[in-house]
Specification:
This protein is an all-alpha fold and 202 residues long. The chain has a single domain, classed as Clp, N-terminal domain (Double Clp-N motif, Orthogonal Bundle). The radius of gyration is 16 Å and the shape is globular. The two termini are 17 Å apart.
């Protein structure tokens, strides 16, 4: 399935892992996908922002619902471990980084360098041993993103398809947060489909 992911969709998956790690969460949930979708430059991010979804408000809601465990031990360097975990699900982290840096410039993925001081929420990014697994619900969302692509007769999975998978699954924390922010899921679904039709695929 992951061979169908566009560079943007792969960047969303990598970004979701980074979001979970930064917050010190033990699993990657739909809320981390939503945060990544709002961070990665894509049509899905544009659609979400046009719907009034603000990344900082979403992050604050995630912290409110799940907590921020960023004070736990920070690992000095987990790149090799992260790359191995992503490779196990068909994502070559080095290839994704190289392609993104080729298109957007060196260091384009360094959105949030590990700070030496405490961050905006007074917490340090999380670390610790072991890789961060996807929640069962999030695995379902990724499966549904493929189904959304097939439904739309697309041979690729873009960030919009991932967000369509989040909406179709409908029960994750991402959808709860969007409901709390009074986002109309049906309108969001239609806007994502229009974004795909307009060719805003990355």
């Amino acid at each position: 399935m992951f061979e169908r992911f566009t560079q943007g969709a792969r960047a969303v998956v990598v970004g979701a892992k980074d979001e979970a790690r930064e917050l010190g969460h033990p699993v990657i949930g739909t809320e981390h996908l939503l945060l990544a979708l709002l961070t990665v430059d894509s049509g899905a991010g544009v659609v979400l922002r046009q719907a009034g979804v603000d990344r900082e408000a979403v992050r604050a809601a995630v912290v409110e619902h799940v907590g921020d465990h960023g004070d736990e031990a920070v690992a000095a360097d987990r790149d090799a471990e992260d790359a191995a975990a992503l490779k196990a699900i068909g994502i070559d982290l080095d290839a994704v980084r190289a392609a993104i840096e080729e298109n957007f410039g060196a260091g384009a993925l360094n959105l949030r360098p590990v700070p030496k001081k405490r961050g905006i929420f007074g917490k340090r990014p999380a670390g610790g041993g072991g890789h961060t697994p996807f929640s069962n619900r999030n695995k379902k969302v990724l499966e549904l993103s493929l189904r959304e692509a097939l439904r739309l007769k697309h041979k690729f999975i873009a960030p919009e398809h991932i967000m369509l998978g989040v909406i179709r699954e409908g029960k994750g924390l991402a959808m709860q947060i969007l409901a709390e922010q009074r986002v109309d899921a049906d309108r969001l679904r239609a806007d994502l489909a229009r974004s795909l039709e307009a060719g805003a695929v990355t």
